[in-house]
Write a structure and sequence with these properties.
Blueprint (H helix, E strand, L loop, with lengths): L8 E4 L2 H16 L4 E2 L12 E2 L1 E4 L6 H5 L2 H18 L7 E3 L4 E5 L4 E2 L16 E6 L9 E3 L4 E3 L5 E6 L7 E2 L7 E10 L2
Antiparallel strand pairs: 1-11, 2-4, 3-7, 4-6, 5-13, 6-13, 8-11, 8-13, 9-10, 9-12
Length: 191
Amino acid sequence: MIDLTSYIKSYECPQETLEGAIELFEMCKDMDFIVPGKIGLGTVDKTIKDSEDVYIESLPTFTHHEFGMDSYVKHIHEACQDYLDSIHLGYYRMRMLGLPQIQHYPPGGGYHQEHIDSYSNSTCNRIIGYITYLNTVDNGGGTQFPYMDHTEQAVAGKTIFFPSGVTHVHKGVVAPDEDKYILVGWFGSSS
């Protein structure tokens, strides 16, 4: 029997990404670039997902370099190739499906519902997902894979990669009294 947790791998993110992404998020908050977290086909339902999101793709390109997103994207590409090699799928060519999102979960917030990342016609091209924890959360805040009895702790600088489909159902672990900041995105087929 295959241990599905072996398909969850972690990597160390460049330090400048952590401060840069949180600083970028705060700047976006001041400029009204924050949107409520969406589920499914763009629905806002805070009982399922209580977050504030920034779509980096919608920001002026100077912010990508100024806030360290260029080095982050380079890190993500290199880590994804290593991830694919480590699970013996390095011969597949994947492409990043847009730039990542910065997500902020306030105390008590989170992605409460178990879900997969490739769940509809518009997201079925998501093959590999990744999450980078931008801050350490001491009480909760991680990512739980309930059917594997596995939880990744929210540790600043840790990036995790995992399959986006039904084998890796997951949900956020609520941090009752701390903020949680993450970068999240996906890779899909290059064709």
